[in-house]
Design brief:
The complex is a heterodimer of chains A (about 230) and B (about 220). Chain A has about 230 residues and is mainly α. Chain A is built from 9 helices and no strands. Chain B has about 220 residues and is an all-alpha fold. In chain B, α2 crosses α10, α4 packs antiparallel against α5 and α9 runs antiparallel to α10. The chains are: A mainly alpha (about 230), B mainly alpha (about 220). The interface between A and B is large, with 50 and 49 residues.
Chain lengths: ~230, ~220
């Protein structure tokens, strides 16, 4: 057997791959579920916080800034470990899935709040005043004048952050979430063969590469023409 | 509640373990940030050669690592390579993974910085007799770095936070040490302490970044 054959036999073993394909696929489903939940709740909460902040209530703003700074400073894995291993001592026992979801959603919330807020503040004061003077309410001004411009500014950095944080679903492995990496790792130790890990790696690329390429397109599409 | 999450006795007892972890996190960061910067600089310099034969593979390389979770890369090196007869320690694996992963991110930032320097600058530098390398080192790069300083800083913050991944491959950094202390004391206190240490260490950087971002917006 040549070196290449032996390499292929080890890392791309057809029999092992065939046997563990269903496991990896079920991991893909979990990863997708987790990713969608994180994106929807994280960005939703981030937008909600940015809107709250635009009301300009001082103590509330300090609170928002504090929470945002906290989740921008802590490594996502530390938040996951804290929730998963810490909360049971307080009588709550979130599953690994819930711990990972909450942690990544908090982190994405923090980053997206900053990005949305930067977008909102970038809209010139004069536009607020002009919109209000034509008789639009505060809410109408926000929805119809400020947010459309803020979103446009927010989209390129937001897609980048979202991808970086959503990739973090792999961290769920540490708290026994059966997503792609978790499935691949246990399949690898069961079969004593790295082929499942190669399948897992391929699965991540299939999932995330199109998103990264789309993000590159969006970045150029939404860039302000100067 | 305080007895569970912030037990003074456990803080005192576990502090030497956590402190050793903090020291290792600092050392690890001092190693992987320059590694990533070197990787990024190589990519950015390659990208300044604007031929399709260089550009397309480079873009594919960067997109690959933007799509690939760093933890998967780390596990691949740590648990996959031994099957090819290559057994690297957790520490070396972290170094390689960071070089590849964060290098791609730094590369994108530095490339944007180099692109932001007007071509006239290079032409002027070259016409005064500087070589291509000299023009890049003394004229283009200093301006490029200054133009993307907030992004570089922001990425460096992410890199330092990412060193917590080392805990998965038994590198005794802050999170790993805290989890060791947690299993020794049966208390979540050491992890809370580690989280506080991370926050105190990185919060000033987050504040600084917020201010830099606001200033960038104000200038618009």
């Amino acid at each position: 057997m040549s070196t290449w054959d032996r390499f292929a036999e080890t890392f791309f073993n057809a029999k092992v791959m065939h046997r563990y394909l269903p496991d990896i696929l079920s991991g893909v489903v979990v990863t997708i579920e987790l990713a969608l939940l994180v994106v929807a709740t994280g960005i939703g909460a981030g937008l909600a916080l940015a809107l709250l902040r635009s009301l300009g209530i001082r103590p509330l703003n300090w609170l928002i800034i504090g929470v945002v700074d906290l989740f921008r400073s802590l490594p996502p894995l530390v938040v996951i470990v804290l929730i998963y291993f810490g909360l049971p001592s307080a009588g709550l026992a979130p599953s690994g899935f819930v711990s990972t979801w909450l942690s990544l959603a908090f982190v994405l919330m923090a980053f997206s709040e900053e990005i949305f807020w930067a977008g909102i503040t970038s809209v010139d004061r004069g536009q607020w005043e002009a919109a209000r003077s034509t008789g639009l309410s505060f809410g109408q001004t926000l929805m119809n004048v400020v947010l459309p411009q803020a979103f446009r500014l927010a989209i390129p950095p937001l897609t980048n952050r979202t991808i970086a944080i959503t990739k973090g679903t792999a961290l769920g492995t540490v708290v026994a979430v059966t997503e792609i990496l978790g499935q691949a790792s246990s399949a690898m130790s069961n079969s004593y063969n790295p082929s499942p890990l190669m399948m897992g790696a391929a699965a991540y690329l299939v999932l995330f590469l199109p998103v990264v390429v789309a993000a590159r397109f969006i970045e150029t599409r939404f860039a302000w023409k100067r | 509640m305080i007895q569970t999450f912030f037990n003074p006795e456990i803080i005192v007892a576990s502090w030497p373990i956590v402190r050793a972890g903090l020291l290792n996190t600092v050392l690890l960061s001092l190693l992987v940030v320059p590694l990533g910067l070197i990787g990024g600089l190589i990519l950015a310099l390659l990208a300044s050669v604007k031929t399709p034969a260089v550009r397309w593979p480079l873009m594919a390389w960067v997109d690959f690592f933007r799509a690939f979770p760093p933890l998967v890369l780390l596990i691949l090196l740590f648990a996959g390579l031994p099957f090819a007869g290559l057994e690297l320690g957790g520490f070396v694996c972290v170094g390689i993974a960071f070089f590849l992963n964060t290098g791609a991110y730094y590369g994108e930032i530095l490339r944007a910085g180099i692109d932001s320097v007007p071509a006239g600058q290079i032409e002027a530098a070259r016409s005064t007799g500087l070589s291509r390398l000299q023009a890049m080192t003394y004229v283009v790069l200093p301006q490029a770095v200054r133009n993307v300083l907030p992004d570089l800083l922001s990425n460096t913050l992410e890199v330092v936070k990412l060193t917590a991944l080392g805990s998965v491959v038994a590198v005794p950094e802050l999170l790993y040490q805290a989890r060791q202390a947690q299993s020794l004391t049966y208390s979540p206190t050491p992890i809370v302490v580690a989280a506080i240490v991370y926050f105190l260490m990185l919060w000033p950087v987050v504040r600084l970044l917020s201010r830099l971002e606001n200033r960038a917006l104000a200038r618009r």
